[in-house]
Amino acid sequence: MISGMKLFAILAALVLAGCASQKKDEGFANFQSAEQTIPKVELGALEKEAAIKRFEDFFGDITVENIRAKAPGLFAPDVYFNDTLKTLRGRDSVEAYFLKTTEHADFVRAKVVDVAHSGGNYYVRWVMDVKFKGGQKTSRTIGVTLLRFDREGRVTLHQDFWDSASGFYEHLPVLGGVMRWIKSKI
After folding, report:
1. Cα–Cα distance between 174 and 167 in angstroms, integer?
2. Of the residues 1, 14, 158, 171, which has the fewest C-beta atoms closer than 10 A?
3. How far apart are the first and last CA of the chain?
4. Mean pLDDT, residues 127-141 taken together
5. Fold assignment, 4-185
6. pTM of the shown model
7. Distance between CA atoms of 99 and 5, rounded to whole angstroms?
């Protein structure tokens, strides 16, 4: 069992490491810049349906085969992508990120629950199940993704809004215990 002081030291180290690795509000500034510069494209009903279907097909079962086959049709070459864990620019970077993700999970599957749109912004509400390699349980989380598309219906902006603490960090060795302990004290 980890003593209170050791736990505090681990937590302090994690917080300081996080502060040192990213400037305050850098994530928001990146998103704000992308949001201001990436145009909003209103898709017709059929184009919207096809674009959302590509999103569902890709995230419905994230496997090496699906990533390689479906990423080029889903993401624009210069896509802005942020899933709260990582901010990326470009389809090649996004594809590499998902390929690496498959190395650490037995499966990653998301089900689209609802879609809404307003002025060229499309909001997809989803439920995601992940089973990490070596883990005993499946992690379930909910979230919303803000999407923008180009005229071909490919994603130009992908910004996730979800609880990454419950959906990811709580399932990591050591850090997971720290996160659960913090939540129990709040």
Report:
1. 15
2. 1
3. 21
4. 90
5. Nuclear Transport Factor 2; Chain: A, (3.10.450)
6. 0.78
7. 38
